[in-house]
Design brief:
The chain has helices at 53-68, 87-93, 97-101, 105-108, 111-125, 173-202, 221-227, 241-246, 264-269, 284-290, 334-398, 404-441, 454-468, 493-510, 541-544, 578-588, and strands at 72-77, 82-85, 131-139, 145-156, 162-171, 206-211, 216-219, 251-252, 295-300, 306-317, 323-332, 450-453, 474-479, 488-491, 517-524, 527-533, 592-598, 602-610, 623-625. The protein has 16 helices and 19 strands. It has 4 domains: 1-171, PAS domain (Beta-Lactamase), CATH 3.30.450.20; 203-332, PAS domain (Beta-Lactamase); 351-441; 450-625, Histidine kinase-like ATPase, C-terminal domain (Heat Shock Protein 90, 2-Layer Sandwich), CATH 3.30.565.10. The chain is elongated and about 190 Å long. The N and C termini lie far apart (125 Å).
């Protein structure tokens, strides 16, 4: 037999001291009768005079009880051999009587339990224990283990020496199986509880568990951080539920105070689900289908933060359906709502800007079209007036001696007509820019591409501007593989000339009058580059990318007075249209624009265009023309 020393039951101690264990010869001992019962062996012979009737009746009763017991019973000698056992004991071990009689208890005890069984037996034999109980494993005839609950006591001879053991065995295999299942279930439950606890602590949403009395049982870190519970006033936990919740100043999504009876947690504490915000609560039976309803609320946390939360609450019930508390889930939507409002405002601003742009485009198109017709007529009338003024001036010269005042009046009239002509020319250019801008916005900018010599085009523009500003120095530099040879391109010459004129005119307007303007043409591979460099005030880095935007003017930069003749005054106007149109024209030709600038040293505006065929040959020297 094998005894489990870890069974957890402490056998009673013997009151008497240890006794002699008898002889150690290994011979089989005869069973000594106990008071009132005398177990016998099969070879026992009746006494000559015959047994007494009472003794026979007692022995028969003992045999009947022994064999019909629902538990296994066995008598075992001090060496572990079986002296007697009942059928139930054979059934538990799966042996026949003959097979079991040829084995000892050591033979049928599980090897892992044998040492503990022997220890217990020694303690009983030495008198330290009167008997013991433990759970152990036997090995059945087929080798499978069977769990039993074993109770062992020691029978002594009339002289007090150890005689044999009485073992009572109860099959507890089913109980052990249930215990194992319960242990597995316990471990799984602990694992699941640990997982739920970690999920509870790590959840990004605030989770709050309430007791049936409205007491706050537990909250996760997110809820504690969200509601600022670390900054709660002293005695907060001792307040009644109504008083605690009132400190949060709960409002609905319309920022109206929410009545206490409609708060989601209050409805959940009444056993309702999906109530609040004026709604009607539903019972627990409906919750499985509907789930807890969410409500958008606003609260003031103890750290003075104004929060916009999505709140849901549900009652907690035990297995019998009794209400034991409630749970609240808080989802912080403050930042998301703020971003949504900003996006909505930005969207509204964008729509407003689009509408303003649409109306501006309509205005530009109408203004450029409607103003061009009367302006054309005005220019025609000015031409007629100038011709008539020239004839009148010739006539006044003939009578100058007789009418000197007439000559002066005619000269004054001619000057004013010249000023009017310059003003109408500038207005015409502004209308052209407005018309071009409207065409760009409507994606209707027309290009009339044709082969031309870009070097000649640049020289023509520079010559025109030199005439318009005779007091300024404009230097032209051409660096091409073939020196002064033509640079063939296929472009809209008027549009590219408009870009060159705009770049040089801006340089003349903003650079000091005594500083030169450098215009360079550089051919490199399959692209050419035209750059206009001035020594003006320069442009801040933050403004360089914005100079190409519509209606943008660099702040803090003013034109130099008296630097341009009337022909160039106002080129590009003062509306911030010129560079925007230039960028669109160059990009429509497949090129790029850019600017390099250093504050206090000047700026270089440049554009590139693709060449139809890369020019070959060595680079020539620098060709310079200076006014």
């Amino acid at each position: 037999m094998q005894f489990d020393a870890s069974a957890g039951q402490r056998p009673a101690r013997l009151a008497r001291p240890a006794t002699d264990l008898g002889d150690d010869t290994g011979t089989t001992r005869h069973i000594r009768p106990t008071p009132g019962i005398r177990p016998t062996r099969e070879d026992d012979q009746p006494e000559p005079d015959g047994p007494e009737p009472e003794l026979l009746e007692s022995e028969q009763l003992f045999r009947t009880m022994f064999e019909r017991s629902v538990v296994g019973l066995a008598h075992v000698d001090l060496d572990g051999r079986w002296l007697r056992f009942n059928q139930r004991f054979c059934d538990i071990l799966g042996y026949s009587r003959e097979e079991l009689a040829s084995r000892t208890f050591q033979d049928v005890t599980h090897p892992d339990d044998l040492a503990a069984s022997l220890v217990c037996l020694r303690r009983v034999l030495t008198g330290e224990l009167e008997g013991y109980e433990l759970d152990k494993r036997y090995l059945r005839r087929d080798g499978t283990p069977v769990w039993v609950h074993l109770t062992v006591t020691l029978v002594h001879t009339p002289e007090g020496a150890p005689d044999y053991f009485i073992s009572m065995v109860q099959d507890i295999t089913e109980r052990k199986r249930l215990e194992r299942e319960r242990e597995v279930a316990r471990v799984q439950a602990e694992h699941q509880a640990d997982q739920l606890d970690r999920i509870f602590e790590a959840a990004a949403d605030g989770l709050i568990v309430w007791g049936a009395d409205g007491r706050l049982v537990r909250e996760n870190p997110a809820a504690r951080r969200m509601l600022g519970l670390d900054a709660a006033p002293p005695g907060f936990q001792q307040l009644r539920l109504r008083e605690r919740l009132a400190l949060y100043a709960v409002r609905d999504e319309h920022n109206r105070p929410m009545p206490y009876e409609e708060w989601p947690i209050v409805c959940a504490m009444r056993g309702e689900v999906g109530a609040g915000a004026g709604g009607v609560g539903v019972g627990a039976g409906d919750w499985a289908e509907t789930g807890p309803e969410e409500h958008d609320v606003r609260v003031r946390a103890f750290n003075e933060r104004e929060l916009e939360l999505t709140c849901s609450a549900a009652p907690l019930r035990d297995r019998e359906g009794h209400l034991v508390g409630a749970v609240t889930v808080l989802h912080d939507r403050t930042e998301r709502n703020r971003l949504a409002r900003e996006r909505e405002a930005a969207r509204a601003d964008e729509l407003a800007a689009r509408e303003a742009n649409r109306r501006m485009e309509q205005f530009l198109a109408v203004a450029a079209h409607d103003l061009r017709t009367p302006l054309t007529a005005t220019i025609g009338y000015l031409d007629l007036a100038q011709h008539q003024a020239e004839r009148l001036a010739a006539a006044a010269t003939a009578v100058q001696d007789a009418y000197p005042a007439l000559t002066r009046q005619v000269a004054t009239m001619r000057d004013r007509l010249e000023n009017a002509d310059q003003g109408t020319a500038r207005l015409a250019r502004l209308l052209t820019l407005l018309f071009d801008t409207a065409a760009l916005r409507a994606d209707r900018l027309e290009l009339r591409r044709a082969p031309c010599d870009l070097a000649a085009l640049v020289r023509e523009c520079v010559t025109t501007l030199r005439v318009a500003a005779p007091l300024r120095t404009i230097r032209l530099h051409t660096l091409a593989p073939a020196g002064d040879a033509p640079i063939p391109v296929e472009v809209d010459a008027d549009r590219i000339g408009q870009v060159i004129t705009n770049f040089v005119s801006n340089a003349l307007k903003y650079a000091p009058p005594d500083r030169p303007i450098d215009v360079s043409v550089l051919v490199r591979g399959s692209r050419l580059r035209v750059a206009v460099c001035d020594q003006g005030p320069g442009i801040l880095e933050a403004e360089r990318a914005r100079v190409w935007e519509l209606f943008h003017r660099v702040p803090g930069v003013t034109a130099q007075s008296g630097t341009l003749a009337g022909a160039t005054a106002g080129v590009g106007g003062s509306l911030g249209l010129g560079l925007h149109i230039c960028k669109a024209i160059v990009e429509a030709h497949g090129g790029r624009v850019g600017v390099k600038s250093t504050v206090g040293q000047g700026s270089t505006f440049w554009f590139t265009l693709p060449l139809p065929t890369p020019l070959s040959g060595p680079r020539s020297g620098l060709a310079s023309a200076t006014s």
